[in-house]
Amino acid sequence: MSDKDLNAVLKYIEENIRVTDQTTIEYIDPRGHISRLDSKQNQVIFGRRGSGKSLLLKSIKERNEEVLCFKTNLEDFKDISFPNSIIQVLKSFLSQLNDEIGKSRSWLALGRIKKSTLLKKEISSIIKKLDKQLKRPDTYEEAIRTKQGSKIDGKSEAKFMQNSASIGAELMEEVEVSKSIRFDKLNTLKNELTELKDLINRCSSFLEKPFFLILDDFYFVKRNDQPYFADFFHRLSKNTNLYLKIATIKHRSSLYLQNETYIGIELGHDAQALTLDYSLENFDALVQFTRDLLNHVKKKVNVSDDSKKLLTTNASKLLCLASGGVPRDFLSLFIRLGNKLIEGKKSITKPDVIEVAIENLSNKLEAFKTDSAEEKEILENYLQYIREEIVEKKRTNSFLVSNSDMVKYSQIDQAIKELIDLRLLHIVNSNTSSAPSDGKRYSAYMVDIGLYPNSRPTRFRQIEPGEKDEEGRKDRIRSAPKLNLEKFSKHIESLGLNKLLTETQY
User: Fold this and answer.
1) Which residues, in sequence order, are bridge partners of residue 159?
2) In whole angstroms, how far apart are CA 247 and each of 42, 43, 272, 335, 419?
3) Which DSSP symbol is given to 179?
4) Rounded CA separation 409/490 (Å)
5) Bridge partners of 273?
6) Do 58 and 23 form a contact (C-beta atoms < 8 A)?
7) Best CA proximity match to 353, nearest among 283, 449, 463
8) 465: preceding bond cis by omega (within 30 degrees)
9) How many other CB atoms are there within 10 angstroms of residue 357's CB atom?
């Protein structure tokens, strides 16, 4: 590939690596996610940061003319207190709905213009009420003044020509009574659900289309508020022509809460799940996907040269491994490697891939701090322990965890799942044996290549997915060191952390 063609490819990737309304890159869909998301069903889309959630949702919005899509990115409201965040999303949805009704006026018959005007007026009135709610505290007291009347009977006696008569007089005295009533903003919103649902159905009927409410980056809602947030919009959608499409990171999300009653969205019942992530468990599918992704980019910029000439075979596989199956990470690393070629490097080798992965670690850690929110400090301690035990002491990139032992240590289980979702650990095999076998079943993991000490670590045993052992048997990873969960748990306890990880229920 010439420098000119490579520059065109890199420029296109840089312009499209973040999804915006101007993005022209298309969602590569070998697993048929787009057709599934077209369904009139509440759905939750799981994927790590950079896995293509926003691009998939953009594809739905652009290709389906039979549905009206209303999108809100919850990162915009990550600093908004709850339940004001609900009000902001509701306002955004209603404002977009108002715009759609306004657009429809151009093709409406005269008889329907009056109806559209009334709908717009009703929506605007609700938005004004929501604005007033935003200015109030989450809970507040309101003085209610009422006037009560009481009767006073009076009698007077008059004597006239020796006759007496009683005259009854009835007087009213008004007494003003003042009392305070405590209002809860969330309950106030819930009390208005019937009115909102009726409005949604009337608007859907008027526009002759169902509605998709797209809630992107749901994980930016504070963890403790998430079940209540999901619960409100699930109630809003129930028995209406509104369907939820929620995009989030799986183990950074708590969609429902089970106490005396259950609150939120229960997967399999209230919504169906779609998972976008490619993992190292199916490494061949990941390699093929990244090839398709690069071919799509080259087609967009009219470049036909074979990218295999850019990377050695081993470097190409390692680039897939370094991405951990995340498309944006793959493209980010490819940009860095491409720049090395433009600067004069003849070809890309394995050490080059490791070097750019280490350089990219700062970006991952920055996202880690943002995405892990209030659990950041806890997860840092779990990651640091794994890095010390596996990378520094065992001098390898892989480790095994007993599946039966993991049940006993639910906090470690949660931490590992979250570190996978945060792209710092990667699952390789969720059901394997050890070598030599001890009769137990294990899950095999790899630390992210960015966590390596340097690009050419000495006395370091790097294992790759599907790599054979010395005797030609598959899965060399079976001989990876085992992580001692009892020792791990005691180390975390010794730190005296004053908070536990919120364990997800799926």
Assistant:
1) 164
2) 11, 9, 12, 27, 18
3) E
4) 11
5) 44
6) yes
7) 449
8) no
9) 26
Cis previous bond, 436, omega within 30:
yes
pTM above threshold 0.90: no
Successive 10-residue mean pLDDT values, the chain, 506 residues: 85 88 83 90 95 90 87 93 95 96 68 85 96 80 52 47 45 48 75 96 95 96 94 96 96 88 92 93 90 90 71 83 93 92 85 93 89 88 97 96 95 96 95 91 96 93 78 76 96 92 83
DSSP string, 259-284: SSSEEE--BTTTBEEEE----GGGHH
SS3 392: helix
In single-letter form, the type of residue at position 417 comes to: K
CA angle 393, 394, 397 (to 5 degrees): 115
Q: What is the DSSP letter of 81?
A: P
Helix locations, 42-192, DSSP H: 53-63, 84-103, 110-135, 185-191
Instruction: Return the half-sphere exposure (C-beta side, CA atoms, 13 A cut-off) of residue 446.
Output: 27
3-state helix, strand, coil in the chain (%, to 5): 50, 20, 30
Q: Is 337 helix (H, G, I), strand (E, B) or coil?
A: helix
| Number of Cβ atoms within 10 Å of the Cβ of 22 | 7
Q: 74 φ, ψ to 5°?
A: -75, -10
